């Protein structure tokens, strides 16, 4: 049985120096501004009439270029805060000042200019991180960058020694799932086994939830950025150790490869999830093969995947939770999406478009889904909620940057309503819950925790009476 001693990451899981608010982000931004001011304060006429305008023009061009690229690539459904583009412009301007301001500068001006550049880069990173909530703390960022262990992580070899024991918490094991069926080049994936999995001489046939992250991702993001393990532990402690097996999959193959969980030029991600992952988990961990005992939970791009996988493969999955996903696989405009995701094939676009799939499939049996969507402040957030579902508590961090106007420009607005309306026509029991918030990992974490009891009941396990 593993030692009860926590690894360094686990010790700081809920605590640490915040990267989302507080003194550190503000300090980085202030230092960047001060250094930049020291670097540009000069008294020559040529400096202010020629060189500073050059830096400003190039900085603005850099900000506009980054904005155009983000929009062209369809990299975000929730528009970035204006401050991000200001920081990008300042970062480019800082680089220009280092180059064109070097001749004739005093030593302290050169030092300030050189130091201003990394702080400008750091400021951009801080604002970007505040926008998406990817690294909540310095400790979580360090753990990810150094490939530190995940909470409760152990090895597959250690599982045999835990058989028949009564561990207080479940464990996370890294797995290398064969890609024989898909040929999809993927990274290490992770499986969470609840305490109940270790009861008895052989593993019980537990239900499974496939966990899919956002567009820019690693398979461990739900645990590092989402920080969902404390809530899972709390749930199993109140539920006699029972919970579904959770499989944290790799839907992209690399951090910036946006597959949208389809088969195409970016890889056969759909085949990997359905033809590699599902049979592996069933055989390796004795998981149930009944589709009524399988669910998919996804955030952002993963939310789109959750719906798509379920409506395309009701023989594998009967339950989905779509957290702030889009109306379908998306990589820009429809024309761009067809070209980028499907190599120009309109037939493939239709094959993976969830509305088209549902219309062609006809009536479904036993399929249900939950949409946890974002809402602007003035929108009504009260829709019927299924039994076992609680409204997430939304903190200041979850509101994010960008505000109401940014949200209302988001491409995900109306997606849940459209998908749920189509689903109900073909027998899918779906519910929409809307919450005011920002498109951040903190929102995703709250939505997961709120839906856990409902999903657990859906896949056939009892849930604590208090949920």
Strand order of the largest sheet: 1-2-4-3-7-8-9-10
Strand percent estimate: 5-15%
Q: Count the beta strands.
A: 10
Main beta-sheet annotation: 8 strands, mixed
CATH fold call of the largest domain: Rossmann fold
CATH superfamily of the largest domain: Alpha/Beta hydrolase fold, catalytic domain
Inertia-based shape: globular
CATH architecture of the largest domain: 3-Layer(aba) Sandwich
Helix content: 40-55%
H/E order of the elements? HHHHHHHEEEHHEEEHEHEHHHEHHHEH
Q: Rg from C-alpha positions?
A: 24 Å
Q: How does the helix and strand content classify structurally? A: alpha/beta
Characterization of this structure:
The chain is an alpha/beta fold and 467 residues long. It folds into two domains: 23-132, no CATH class; 150-458, 3-Layer(aba) Sandwich (Rossmann fold). Helix content is 46%, strand content 11%. It contains 18 helices and ten strands. The strands form two sheets. Strands 1-2-4-3-7-8-9-10 form an eight-stranded mixed beta sheet, with helices on both faces. It has a two-stranded antiparallel sheet with strand order 5-6. Helix 3 crosses helix 4 (82-100) and helix 4 packs antiparallel against helix 5.
Secondary structure blueprint with pairings:
Layout: H1 8-11, H2 23-40, H3 45-73, H4 82-100, H5 107-132, H6 138-145, H7 159-162, E1 171-175, E2 189-193, E3 208-212, H8 221-224, H9 229-238, E4 245-248, E5 263-264, E6 267-268, H10 269-284, E7 294-299, H11 301-312, E8 319-323, H12 334-342, H13 346-352, H14 354-361, E9 368-375, H15 396-399, H16 403-408, H17 415-425, E10 429-436, H18 441-458
Helix pairs in contact: 2-5, 3-4, 4-5, 11-14, 14-17
């Amino acid at each position: 049985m593993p030692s009860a001693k926590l690894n360094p990451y686990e010790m700081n899981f809920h605590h640490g120096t915040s990267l989302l608010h507080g003194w550190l982000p503000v300090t980085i931004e202030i230092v960047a501004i001060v250094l930049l001011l020291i670097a540009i304060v000069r008294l020559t006429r040529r400096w202010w009439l020629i060189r500073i305008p050059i830096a400003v023009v190039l900085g603005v061009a850099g900000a506009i270029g980054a904005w155009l690229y983000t929009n062209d690539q369809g990299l975000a459904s929730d528009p970035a805060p204006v401050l991000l583009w200001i920081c990008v412009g300042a970062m480019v301007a800082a680089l220009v000042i280092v180059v064109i301001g070097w001749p004739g500068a005093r030593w302290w001006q050169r030092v300030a200019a050189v130091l201003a550049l990394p702080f400008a880069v750091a400021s951009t990173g801080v604002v970007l991180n505040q926008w998406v909530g990817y690294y909540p703390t310095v400790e979580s960022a360090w753990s990810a960058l150094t490939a530190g262990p995940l909470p409760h992580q152990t090895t597959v070899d250690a599982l045999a020694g835990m058989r028949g024991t009564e561990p207080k918490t479940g464990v996370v094991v890294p797995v290398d799932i064969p890609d024989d069926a898909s040929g999809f080049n993927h990274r290490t994936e992770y499986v969470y086994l609840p305490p109940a999995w270790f009861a008895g001489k052989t593993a019980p046939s537990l239900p499974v939830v496939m966990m899919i992250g956002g567009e820019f991702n690693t398979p461990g993001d739900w645990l590092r950025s989402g920080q969902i393990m404390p809530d899972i532990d709390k749930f199993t402690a109140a539920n006699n150790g029972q919970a579904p097996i959770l499989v944290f999959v790799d839907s992209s193959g690399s951090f910036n490869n946006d597959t949208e969980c389809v088969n195409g030029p970016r890889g056969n991600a759909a085949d990997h999830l359905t033809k590699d992952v599902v049979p592996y988990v069933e055989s390796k961990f004795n998981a149930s093969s009944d589709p009524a005992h399988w669910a998919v939970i996804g955030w952002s791009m993963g939310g789109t995947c959750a719906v798509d996988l379920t409506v395309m493969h009701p023989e594998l999955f009967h339950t989905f939770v779509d957290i702030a996903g889009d109306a379908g696989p998306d990589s820009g405009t429809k024309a761009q999406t067809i070209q980028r995701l499907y190599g120009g094939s309109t037939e493939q676009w239709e094959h993976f478009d969830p509305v088209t799939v549902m219309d062609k499939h006809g009536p479904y049996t036993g399929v249900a889904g939950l949409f946890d969507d974002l809402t602007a402040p003035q929108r009504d957030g009260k829709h019927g909620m299924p039994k076992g579902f609680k409204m997430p508590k939304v903190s200041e961090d979850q509101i994010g940057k960008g505000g109401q106007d940014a949200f209302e420009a988001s491409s995900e607005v109306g997606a849940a309503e459209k998908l749920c309306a189509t689903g109900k026509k073909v027998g899918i029991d779906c519910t929409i819950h809307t919450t005011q918030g920002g498109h951040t990992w903190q929102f995703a974490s709250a939505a997961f925790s709120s839906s856990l009891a409902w999903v657990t009941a859906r896949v056939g396990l009892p849930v604590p009476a208090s949920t």
